[in-house]
Design goal:
Length: about 300
């Protein structure tokens, strides 16, 4: 009964997926504009990467070409259905990865795990465990599920680390802007001068954002707010809102930026103290386990002798 219900559910899901694939919904205007912008960004990225192409092996080129083709098809598939994936795009943006590579990795890793079903069956047969298909198939399915979610976990961890670094850079950036405002510069000049001080990836991102804003005629705080939304960094969005409110008053801007930098430093310090406390607690638990194991090691011969007598 359960097998019949499971088979019926799988068949119904397959028919639903087939109907959705054959008759996809018509995308709206916003979806088409997003697809057009994504295609333009992909074209500009490929143009910039042609000059950096190195000498690689034919096998690696074929694998890279397959992943690129699969990634492009998956991006078209998601854009045609209006799947925005805002959080994933923000994580990819801050880690400087492409959506095509991410989607291709999520598709190819589980597919490779499922392709190993005959290999696992042959290995079980060589070990003399029988020719059953269920156990190897379930093993490969479990590995496929793990491989499907593994890129998301890796991307989330790397994006969290990069956001932490970016927040620390934003705190230092606010101090530099405040000092430039105290020196008599205006808000746009102070922002650009502060962005030109460092050479890390976060400062380069801020510098490019402010430079593009000057070229396109946007205000610097609007550009910083857009960057905060793209990278999912709340500090940049708050900074953009504060600058938009007090952009005409240099003294108020300086006080606001100094207060924000101080609050960011205090919050970062409290987070570091919390992490240090967690690590010290974990070390204490490990030491307790070592002491318990040593006591068992010392008491084991005496207990065995008493029980033997």
């Amino acid at each position: 009964m359960n097998a019949a219900l499971l088979a019926g559910a799988v068949a119904g899901l397959g028919l639903f997926a087939l109907v959705r694939a054959l008759f996809p919904p018509r995308p709206g205007l916003a979806t088409r504009l997003a697809a057009f912008d994504a295609a333009r960004r992909r074209g500009s990225g490929q143009t910039g990467q042609t000059g950096r192409a190195g000498r690689t092996s034919p096998a690696r080129d074929s694998v890279g070409g397959l992943r690129a083709r699969v990634g492009r098809e998956l991006v078209r598939f998601t854009e045609a259905r209006g799947w925005r994936m805002t959080s994933i795009r923000a994580d990819l943006d801050i880690t400087d990865r492409s959506l095509e590579t991410f989607l291709a990795t999520k598709f190819l890793l589980p597919a490779a795990a499922l392709l190993f079903v005959p290999v696992v069956i042959a290995y079980f047969a060589l070990l003399g465990l029988g020719m059953s298909v269920q156990v190897p198939a379930w093993i490969c399915v479990i590995f496929a599920v793990v491989f499907f979610f593994f890129p998301d976990l890796q991307l989330r961890q790397e994006a969290a680390a990069r956001r932490g670094d970016f927040r620390r850079v934003v705190g230092a950036f606010l101090d530099l802007v405040s000092m430039n405002l105290a020196g008599g510069r205006g808000v746009p000049e102070a922002l650009m001068t502060a962005a030109n001080v460092g050479d890390g990836w976060a400062m380069r991102r801020l510098r490019d954002t402010l430079g593009n804003a000057r070229i396109t005629g946007r205000t610097p705080w609007q550009a910083l707010g857009t960057l905060g939304e793209d990278l999912d960094v709340a500090e940049l969005r708050d900074l953009a809102g504060a600058l938009a409110l007090v952009a005409d008053d240099g003294a108020q801007v300086r006080k606001s930026l100094s207060a924000r930098a101080a609050s960011m430093r205090s919050r970062e310090l409290s987070e570091l103290e919390g992490k240090a406390g967690e690590r010290s607690q974990s070390m204490l638990v490990a030491q307790l386990f070592l002491c318990g194991a040593f006591l068992v090691f010392l008491a084991y011969p005496a207990v065995i002798r008493v029980m033997g007598s």
